[in-house]
Amino acid sequence: MRLVPLLALGLLSVLASPSRAEDPYDTSKRVAERPARDVAGGAAPLGFDTRAEPGLVRWHADAPAALAAAKLSGKPVLVFQILGRLDDEFC
Amino acid sequence: MLFSHRELASWLSSSFECAWESVRDVPKVTVDFGGGNVVRRTLHGNVVTWVTDADGRVVEALGGLYEPGAYRARLEQSLLVSAMLSKCPDGAARDAAFADYHARQAERIAAGSAPLVVRKEMDPSLALSKMRIEDPFKYVLSEPGSAYVHAGPPITIRLAEGAPAVFGSKGLAEAPVRQSVAAGTDAPSQSITTLGAAKTLTERSESLLRTPPLDRPRPSGDTIDAPGVRADRGLLAQDTAAGETVHRPAIHALLAKSGRAAYTALSKPLYRDVLHLDLDDPWLGLGGLLFGTYPFEK
């Protein structure tokens, strides 16, 4: 019976915690739903986060960096030109 | 994605200094079916692969998408072209060799012949003592199909009777375009099956063939009428065929005319004249179609 006050105290502390007060969503729902503030704040809606890995090639940051590296390595430069971005799913 | 192909990505990273760049935003089309059902895809995108020297002057260019084996074969050739140009004694000789290479390739492919290949051969004119300090090789532009020496030990595989020949990466570059495109390098599981005529592949090519194919058939079942491509082959095979038979001669002709210019200066002309995609046009040439006969809302 001594445990009852301790459990009640623990429950109260959880309910009163700042994070809980700011975020009323339970975690199970968050898997399927997104907090409204994220959507209203301009975050991409589900299914439209289009970032992607640009493959397994070791890419330089840009073509000038590749050209600079080629002056040191003696290798030719490969520049892949694309409409859109290679690190975007929609490219 | 082509660059997610592990073998190819590793080879590209070790052979070139690689960078990608965007030439403009890609047009996207969104269809809202209602009820939260929205589909989105890109429209009218296209790519160009430039191989340049360290000053950004073009050596070779590939228009459109390629199958991994064909892509590597073309880029292996571009390495040899690059080495051939670097052996020229001065800039004027380099310019002349560049123009000659691209002009001859444009003429041959336009005439329906297989492109020439650059071969790396031991230079017999160099004395043995000089070979220690100088590159002992020379790079020769020659007819395809003649004997060549590959780097690794051959691997013998067996092809099904009647199956199309499968070439190694070097062999692919040297085979006639239409034959190589139709050969089916992205479908090795169908070709390398039972007893039949023995063919040899290099180790590197075999590893490329082992990986799962990237190609997929067009969902509608339709095919593009590209020369030398079997009707049941997928989109990537047809893109490869278009790249080799349609875009390639036009690119060689463009480069023969432009000379060894910076790739940045050639980007717009290549997109416009070869890929028919004017980067300066905000509607990418589709304005008449979109607004001329059907009132799409801007």
How does the SSE layout of this entry go?
The complex is a heterodimer of chains A (91) and B (298).
Chain A: H1 3-16, H2 18-22, H3 27-32, H4 36-40, H5 63-73, E1 77-83
Chain B: H1 6-15, E1 17-24, E2 28-32, E3 38-42, E4 47-52, E5 58-63, H2 68-86, H3 91-110, E6 117-122, H4 128-131, E7 137-142, E8 155-158, H5 169-174, H6 177-182, H7 188-191, E9 198-201, H8 203-210, H9 235-258, H10 263-274, H11 287-292
Antiparallel strand pairs in B: 2-3, 4-5, 6-7, 8-9
Helix pairs in contact in B: 3-9, 9-10
Oligomer: heterodimer
Biggest beta sheet summary of chain A: none
Strand composition percent of chain A: 5-15%
What is the number of beta strands of chain A?
1
Mean pLDDT metric of chain A: 66
Whole-angstrom Rg of chain B:
21 Å
Instruction: Count the DSSP helices of chain A.
Output: 5
Keywords:
heterodimer; A: 91 residues; mainly alpha; 5 helices; elongated; B: 298 residues; alpha+beta; two-stranded antiparallel ribbon
Could you characterize the architecture of this molecule?
- The complex is a heterodimer of chains A (91) and B (298).
- With 91 residues, chain A is mainly alpha-helical.
- Chain A has helices at 3-16, 18-22, 27-32, 36-40, 63-73; one strand spanning 77-83.
- The longest helix of chain A has 14 residues, at 3-16.
- Chain A is elongated.
- Residues 11-27 and 29-48 of chain A have low confidence and may be disordered.
- Chain B has 298 residues and is an alpha+beta fold.
- Chain B is elongated, with a radius of gyration of 21 Å.
- The two termini of chain B are 32 Å apart.
- The relative contact order of chain B is 0.15.
- The model of chain B is unreliable at 146-214 and 224-228 (pLDDT under 50).
- The A-B interface holds A 47-48, 53-63, 65-67, 69-71, 73-86, 90-91 and B 1-6, 9-10, 12-13, 15-28, 38, 40-42, 44-56, 59, 75, 78-79, 82, 263, 267, 277.
Short description:
By secondary structure, chain A is mostly helical. Chain A has helices spanning 3-16, 18-22, 27-32, 36-40, 63-73; one strand at residues 77-83. A two-stranded antiparallel sheet of chain B has the order 2-3. Chain B has a two-stranded antiparallel ribbon with strand order 4-5. Chain B has a two-stranded antiparallel sheet with strand order 6-7.
